[in-house]
Each structure stands twice: as C-alpha cells, then as structure tokens.
Amino acid sequence: MNVWIAIGITVVGCYAVKLAGLLVPAGALERPLVRRLAALLPVALLAALTAQQTFSTGSALVVDARAAGLAAAGLALLLRAPFLVVVAAAVVVTAGVRALGG
Amino acid sequence: MRETPAPGVRPRAAVVRDALGVGVAVGLSGFAFGVTAAGVGISTLQACVLSLLVFTGASQFALVGALAAGGNPFTAAAGAFFLGTRNAFYGLRLSQLLKLPRPLRPLAAHWVIDETTAVALAQPDRRSARLGFTVTGLTLYVLWNLTTLLGALGAEAIGDTRAWGLDAAGPAVFLALLAPMLKTSTERAVAALALVLGLGFLPVLPAGVPVLIAALAAPVVLWMKGRRP
Predict the structure, then answer these.
(1) Which residues in A lie closer than 8 A to residue B79 (C-beta atoms)?
(2) How far is CA A6 from the centre of its chain?
(3) What is the ipTM metric for this complex?
(4) Can you give the pTM of this predicted structure?
C-alpha cells in the first residue's frame, strides 16, 4: 500500500511540474535566482543519489563491487561513450567483480 | 547527446535521425529500470504504472531506490518530485520554442523531459524543433514502457539481479545524467557538498531524508557565492 501511495504522489507531482512549465507565463519562473536554483537542485540530488546507491546498503555505508562498476561508468563518460555503453559498463564490471568474489 | 550541425534549414531526415538516436538509446534503458524495480520488490504492474504515468527516468529510479531503502512513501515521493522540478523549466523554454496550441499542451507536457528538450533546443527552427520533440518523445515513450515491462518480467527469469550487476544500473544512469551538468566550479561544489551530506546523514537519519538534506547543497552554495564579492 505504501508503494502505491508513493507512486500516486509521484505521478501527480511530476506531471504537475511538467504541465506548469508549459502553462505558466514566462515571467513567473524567469527570476535569475529561481533559474539558478532550478538548475542546481538536480545536480545536488543526482550527486547524493549516485553516492548513496553506490556506497550504501540500507542505512550502512559499504564499499563493494558497485564502486568498481561506477568507476567504469565514470571512465566511459570521460571517453564520451554513448548512454547505453555507460550503463552497460557499470553493470558488466560490477557483475565481473562479484563473479571474481569481490 | 549528439552535437547538431551549424544552424540553417535542417532536412527532416536529419532531425528524425537525431531524434531516433536519442529516443532509442535512452528508451532501451527502461530495461534497467524494470529490472531494478523488480529487484527491490516493486511489482511488474507498479513498475509499468511508473513508466507510463511518471515518465521521467531519474525520478522513477529515485523513487524505487528510496522505497527499497525503506523510506516512507512521502519522503520517497518528495525526492522524486524535486528531481522532476527541472522539467518545469524545460517546459518553460519549450513553450516559447514550440508554441503549441493550448489543447495540445496537457498531452505534450507528459513528454517534457531531459531528452526531448535537448533534441528540440538543438534545432534551428520551430518546425524542426516540433518534429524533433515529437519523434524523440514518441520513440522514447514507446520503448521506455516496452523495455520496463520486459525488464520487470525478465528480472524473475534472470534470478539474482545483484549477481548480474544490475544494481549498478541505477547509479550509472544518475552519473550519466549528472556528468554533463558539472560545467562550472559552482556545480562541482554543489555536487561535492551534496555527496558529503547524502552519505554523512545516511547512517543516522530515516531513509529518504538524507537526499532531501543533500538538496540543500544548492541554496547553500548559491548563498555562499552571493556573500563572496
């Protein structure tokens, strides 16, 4: 049930912000501070989420095979690899390290 | 994301090719979402509803990750929502660029995401932008939902998704979305502070809350920059 509540709120919230952008008069969101904040908010969230999903299990901090996988993804990004290759690199390296007992 | 050639009138085929390239590549990663969702105990129906009705990848991964970590539904949804707020700013730019008829806007809104915006903004004229937006949106929507279903169903057949390294797909998607945003020292400072806050509070606060605290890195860094002459 909890999952459905979360899904319901997310569906409504995410659609509302998408629609707001298309409907709101341009001036309302054009204030420089609001724009700066809107550009930086995803940076903060994505950085925190990347770190958490790589270095934690539940509420414990851990370093395991996912760290190697993410390093591979980082390398692929530096080499300007396409999106799918970046994700595939993380998956393959993580699986590889686990297969080797990491 | 592909670079677009110099401005001018673009042939329709070139616009469609760009749009399909982005739509197919990103659309296929719905598979990773389906598998991730199934791997943390989200049902196939729930995964498909998310892809059909939320349709903004980072928010979907964030929600599923927060629920898996045991977050309560409200903090989990709050994280997904804050990640989705960037779409409002995409919509703002797109509404001026595409000048869509009013009745079409509620429909088009559902497709306002990173990829459709990037393709549309890369076009030199309104017609190409509309075409790029529509083709990217359609391809990505169809493939994202199809591969979510396949991923969710396939996760059972695959067995232990961890053994296949599929739990690394989510963070890799986040990293791929984050990397192009780290252009200036401000963005890097925000990312670094968010990383420290997100990991630092993880062991001591309920699941989902540390991410929301990490979001404060954005106003904090802006405020500190504002104070410096």
Answers:
(1) 45, 49
(2) 18
(3) 0.88
(4) 0.81
